[in-house]
TrEMBL record:
Protein name: threonine--tRNA ligase
Broad EC category: ligase
UniProt domain Aminoacyl-transfer RNA synthetases class-II family profile: residue ranges: 166-460
Reactions catalysed: tRNA(Thr) + L-threonine + ATP = L-threonyl-tRNA(Thr) + AMP + diphosphate + H(+)
One of the record's GO molecular function terms: threonine-tRNA ligase activity
Keyword Aminoacyl-tRNA synthetase (UniProt): yes
GO BP term, example: threonyl-tRNA aminoacylation
Record-linked Gene3D superfamilies: 3.30.54.20, Anticodon-binding domain (3.40.50.800), Bira Bifunctional Protein, Domain 2 (3.30.930.10), Threonyl-trna Synthetase, Chain A, domain 2 (3.30.980.10)
Pfam name, any one: HGTP_anticodon
UniProt-listed Enzyme Commission number(s): 6.1.1.3
Amino acid sequence: MAMAVQKVFPSAQCTIGPWIDRGFYYDFYYPEGFTDQDMKKIQKEMYKIIRKDYPLRREEVSREEAERRIREINEPYKLEILEAIKTEPITIYHIGDEWWDLCAGPHVESTGKLDQKAFALESLAGAYWRGDETKPMLQRIYGTAWENEAQLQAYNDFKAEAKRRDHRTIGKDLGLFSLQQDNAGGGLVFWHPKGAHMRHMIETYWKDLHLARGYELLYSPHVARQELWKTSGHSDFYSENMYQPIKVEDEMYQLKPMNCPFHIVVYQDGYYSYKDLPIRWAELGTVYRYERSGTMHGLFRVRGFTQDDAHIFCLPDQITDEIKSVLDLTEEILSTFGFKEFEVNLSTRPEKSVGDDKIWDTAEGALKDALQMKGWDYIVDDGGGAFYGPKIDIKILDAIGRKWQCSTVQLDFNLPERFDLSYVDRENAKQRPIMIHRAIFGSLERFFGILTENYAGEFPLWLAPIQVRLLPVTDEVSDYTEGVAKKLRDAGVRVEICTGQRLAKLVRTAEKAKIPVMAVVGREEAENNTLAVRTFKDGDVGTLSVDEVLSRVTTANATKGQSF
């Protein structure tokens, strides 16, 4: 592709082009900018290169020779890439005698080995060189490549299905939420009544379950003095993701990017012995992070979001049991929302870290023991832990096989040290507690987006914003319909009445809104205290008594049931 770009646009300069999941991209310095029409020209040139079956040849050169050649063709970005390569010899790959690039390889023998029906250029985007917004804007071309045409077609089908499930479109169509960039600014979520009610149900379930599992709830402010963030280290290590401080009288305050320091402040306000631990505190805490406009995406990446945070303060010998309990709780919550397949990663001590060898060995052993007790297979990411402790990350698989990082469990030796946290042990000596950070949803906004795409807006019955829509076919049954609606509402069923259109249109409108249960009400139903029921999932299910409909929906609510 890079060769084709420079054949069609000789002034374009190459930068870097890595592979990514399901494809690749390549960034070019080309101030004029590429267009969709240019993409067609580039792909057409790629076909020509494949048909000519150029051989690919590997060449080893010295660093000095590589630099000479790069300067000769005026590729300044390649010079920076060369400087970053620490190993020698430097390898160059040639496509025939017409084009070459710095590359580690390997490659196919010749361009003719590629199936021109098995790749496609997909999209254009802007990207700053090295991800630094102070550096030049580059033109990024995304592509995908497969072994054969059938695989490419399967991928295109997957993309079409993913587009059908896009939470941004579904959220707008169903009136769940909006992102008011023009009015309020980017990355800020406005929950509409239906979406807000769903969020309320998610939060209520989360709180009730945590209270039942031995957690206590906290609420903390949205801002704090800047000194708190200096003590925690966020001002030094996380400042690029934080908003500018706010001056209040003679002090500087900071919008919180995380909840951790606030829970620590609560801990500092008490006095604890080893008998008091473990302490489990949970909060649905809204945080604010500076995301650049080009990185935001629907609910998946926003500037203000609510984390389902919890922090556990425990003794070293309590780590295994606490982690096991967190994993049990994670499985219970995620499976309730329909996610039952996980990929688990255990990240161990990185090269640069805090804490002594003994506590790291104890912590990593405790995480492994908890995973073994849980019976979960896991992938070890050697050196992938945070500098302050090892962690477990859990990815969920959705209905079309995509993996989403949601839950994380992290051990922390750093913040207890920074804030001088302590408890009194059996010998009446002060000791440091172990701090466990954990989130199960990750953030409510992102999880809601995942949930929406997983179900394509066809939410489980217990979670659907409207569970039953009554469709009276004549004004004569209005009183009966209102009576049914009241009976359902009094039992906690979310119900609405829809009129003013022909029955066929009422049904189509309900199906478009993905209402789980539609109930037609005519004279016969009013006379017999019944409803003619149709579900979104199964179509007509027949005539049922009002009590039967009520029983099925309330049972689904009580058991977190998926269907009618």
